């Protein structure tokens, strides 16, 4: 029998914002539009599972796609 694996830790929204170099507001918009990595409320804080991946068109968003990027 294989030993149990531990899940990847969830990231705080400030950490994800710094890692992806997106404003925090963009991550909140992604969540409301059901886009981007899965997120869940833990208490009053938002935690994000980066192990699930990030949007494939991250490069396009960085160039200024105003539809999903915070103003």
Would you write up a description of this structure?
This protein has 71 residues and is an alpha+beta fold. The protein has a domain at 11-54. The protein is 31% helix and 14% strand. The protein has a 3-stranded antiparallel beta sheet with strand order 1-3-2. The model is unreliable at 59-71 (pLDDT under 50).
Q: Count the strands?
A: 3
User: Given the structure, what is the number of helices?
Assistant: 3
How much strand content do the residues show? 5-15%
What portion of residues is helical? 25-40%
Largest sheet: 3 strands, antiparallel
- Estimate the mean pLDDT confidence: 74
Shape: elongated
Residue runs with pLDDT of under 50 for 5 or more positions: 59-71
In short:
This protein is an alpha+beta fold and about 70 residues long. The chain contains 3 helices and 3 strands; from the N terminus they run βααββα. The model is unreliable at about 60-70 (pLDDT under 50).
Features:
71 residues, alpha+beta, 3-stranded antiparallel beta sheet, 3 helices, 3 strands, 31% helix, disordered C terminus
Helices and strands, with pairings:
Layout: E1 11-12, H1 13-20, H2 24-32, E2 39-42, E3 45-48, H3 58-62
């Amino acid at each position: 029998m294989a030993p149990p694996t531990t899940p990847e830790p969830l990231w705080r929204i400030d950490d994800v914002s710094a890692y992806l170099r997106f404003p925090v507001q963009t991550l909140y918009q992604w969540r409301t539009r059901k886009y981007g990595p899965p997120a869940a409320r833990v208490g009053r804080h938002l935690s994000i599972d980066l192990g699930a991946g990030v949007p494939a068109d991250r490069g396009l968003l960085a160039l200024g796609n105003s539809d999903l990027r915070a103003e």
